[in-house]
Amino acid sequence: MPPPTEKLLQELNPGEHFTGFVAIRVLHVRQKRDGSPYLALEFSDRSGRMSGNVWDNVEEFKKVLKVGQVVKLHGSITTYQDKKQITIEKLRPARPEDPVDKTRLIQTSQRSQDEMRRHLRRLIEGVENADIRSFLRRFFDDPEISEKYFDAPAGKLWHHAYLGGLAEHSLNMAEILLKVSEFYPNANRDLLVTGALLHDIGKIYEYQWDVSIDFSDRGRLIGHIVIGQELLNLHRQKDPEMPEEIWNQIIHMVLSHQGKYEHKTPILPATLEAVLLYCADLMDSKANAFNRIIQRSREQGDRWSEYIKLADTFLFAGDEEPQKGEGSQEDTLF
Predict the structure, then answer these.
(1) What pLDDT score does 53 carry?
(2) How far is Cα 248 from Cα 243, in angstroms, rounded to an integer?
(3) Residue 83's CATH number
(4) Does the predicted TM-score (pTM) go above 0.85?
(5) CB 178 within 8 A of CB 127
(6) Does residue 313 form part of some domain?
(7) Residue 310 CA neighbour count, 13 Å, CB half
(8) What is the pLDDT of residues 107-156, one digit of tens each?
(9) In 117-136, which positions are buried (b, 16+ CB within 10 angstroms) versus exposed (e)?
């Protein structure tokens, strides 16, 4: 195959040829009109996803291709029903000696892990309740928890769907809730920070990430809310000094943070802190998703995004805002 192309998938235009390492996100065996099989594939890198089909030698490809695998792909970009797709010319699994750059495969938070670790520590040390503060210290000092917390995404596709997204989202929520508490002084600031930091902790096991983000088997079967409850209760056994009433409120926030039964929450928010947590979660997740979609549309020169199923609408991107200092350089009388 030719050497890898510098451009990422979503940077390619119809008519361009492409060679590079991508991950397989979806693999389905489908039937042509004559009844013979073909493979419907979806490839991804950190820029997004693109589909392509294998029409020939299907049985051989079925033996060597699988979801989550890195492959070397050579093809050209075409369009079908106004969407870009790949016409596959050559395809093979990546080999150990191949120069695969995983940073091209999954997007990463713009915030560094070191900076987010320091941010987390500041928030924990700002907790006034000694029992809560001690629990948070011990919990996040567990190397397995800490390592996964700062690596994990917060979503597969919708919000903070990149490495480091879980920590970024949780830290954002803590800061949002500290601001909100200025308007609701009866809200317990320690519980708000704790709920923000712990509400999505189950996602460290709900998702798996290596070359692409997907659900783990445990994540699909149990879900991050129940996983989070189990994980926290396990650690609480090592910390018997935590008062029962405080602990029940923390667990209530974790269980109710998705706010509505139709959002798969097992219980509705029943405290002031829980409802504020739900609102902050909704705001930060939607704002992150909308912002990424709008910025991508602007980069592509589109005033409107494509139809977003999860938002049930198109998003208005408008024109990219001019940078400060830009503008007319003409001499005028005004």
Answers:
(1) 93
(2) 9
(3) 2.40.50.140
(4) no
(5) no
(6) no
(7) 10
(8) 899 999 999 999 999 999 999 999 999 999 999 999 999 999 999 999 98
(9) eebbeebbeebebeebbebb
